[in-house]
TrEMBL record, chains A, B:
This is Precorrin-3B C(17)-methyltransferase. One of its GO terms (molecular function) is precorrin-3B C17-methyltransferase activity. Keywords: Cobalamin biosynthesis, Methyltransferase, S-adenosyl-L-methionine, Transferase. It comes from Paracoccus fistulariae. Residues 5-212 form the Tetrapyrrole methylase domain. GO terms for biological process: methylation. Pfam families: TP_methylase. It is an enzyme of class 2 (transferase). Pathway: Cofactor biosynthesis; adenosylcobalamin biosynthesis. Its EC number is 2.1.1.131.
Length: 250, 250
């Protein structure tokens, strides 16, 4: 048996948002490995070995997947959203680079998925309809000063901004500091979208102007979208539409 | 009949990358409207009226779709990639905001798709595995100075950068100016990925250091990914892997 490894994006939650390419890989796999809540999203079936791991063990999990593939298994590494956006793909390539030369010869594929910011944007309108950036607020992997530096420059560039992992367990004050930086540098009416657990039964969407934004509006299942200075709100009954026009003023 | 409008992302090309949600909307629709090459990706069937338009007519196309939905049609507006990323969703919301109040009451949904930068990143490894931004180089809709301003700040922030529509018809020199700006501000070994027509029969991937990058390596079907200063290349037979580590140096 020839082994392979597919680092697959399950999308934000709803199976209707998972690509047929990922479904096919899950059908063909002998082994499924990932952070426990993601592994549990895939129905059990005979012939599929399941390996649930803790969230903090990305490199260990990546090496385990590579060892299984080298031994001839067909391994799916499950990520939520897209595996290339603050998820497992980078960890697998880090393991390959640091690992035995044989690992470079393995059949490794990354199967893209619908990442949280795009699922959230779609639910509210088109807030990322112009230039934008994505910043991971988890400071396990980078110093806080770098996060602030990037956020300042993103505001100067007038990007729409997606913040992933806004409430870091290791430093719960991080997102509060972001809000405070935004309140010092942006107009009070700047639009923020708190999008929690999009496409799942727990979905919750909230649009607030910066002046009313509070740190506790976000948790680890939330992606926060910050409009650019041009982002607009269209009032209607229920949740409004929010979009960023395609054109920038000349 | 109650009309609706679904602004749907067909993904980068391969049907295996189109979500079941989008396939379902295409099955339920009475009308399909969009830029001709995207409409042609959807197989013909009885009961589906097809409306192909020119690429420059986004607002006209959006209004047409809204009028059809208001008249009770079930309308899919087709975008390549994700409709919220430099595509049709923002145009539809612009038309809604400027249109009659009734349009705000319509059933309007955005159905996300796999956008070009994430499809391209997946094919080469995980170059967007750390903080990143997306910039549209088409200067039909914004002044060139703003593009340069954003690119400079993105380099200062040390984002990985995805450039959409690198060769604008209206100003073919734009991408050459970007390369020249990058060559002045980044190290000569900075990694660039030219990803053309990903997931289609015309797919072509090329990894080059900045010193060897040339404007003619990109065309309108190319997305260009620019690594951050931390992006790494893993040599192997054939196309190398490229990834950006999850951690930033402290």
């Amino acid at each position: 048996m020839t082994g392979w490894i597919a680092i697959a994006g399950l999308g934000p939650g709803d199976d209707a948002l998972m690509t047929p390419q990922v479904s096919q890989a899950l059908s063909d796999a002998t082994d499924l490995i990932g952070y426990a809540p993601y592994v549990r999203r895939v129905p059990d079936r005979p012939g599929l070995a399941r390996h649930e791991t803790d969230n903090r063990e990305e490199l260990h999990r990546a090496r385990h997947a590579l060892e299984l593939a080298q031994a001839g298994h067909r391994v799916v590494v499950a990520s939520s959203g897209d595996p290339g956006v603050f998820a497992m793909a980078a960890a697998v390539f880090e393991a390959i680079e640091a690992g035995p030369p044989d690992w470079r010869m393995l059949d490794v594929r990354v199967l893209p998925g619908i990442t949280a910011m795009l699922a959230a944007a779609a639910r509210i309108g088109a807030p990322l309809g112009h230039d934008f950036c994505a910043i991971n607020l988890s400071d396990n992997l980078k110093p806080w000063d770098l996060i602030e530096h990037r956020l300042r420059l993103a505001v100067q560039a007038d990007f729409a901004i997606a913040l992933y992992n806004p409430r870091s367990k290791s430093r719960p004050q991080g997102f509060a500091r972001c809000l405070s930086l935004l309140q010092q540098t942006c107009e009070a009416g700047r639009l923020l979208i708190f999008a929690r657990a999009v496409s799942t039964p727990d979905e919750n969407l909230r649009v607030v102007p910066l002046r009313d934004a509070r740190p506790e509006m976000a948790d680890m299942r939330t992606v926060v979208l910050i409009g650019s200075s041009a982002t607009r709100l269209i009032e209607r009954p229920g949740t409004p539409f929010v979009y960023t026009p395609r054109s920038a003023p000349v």
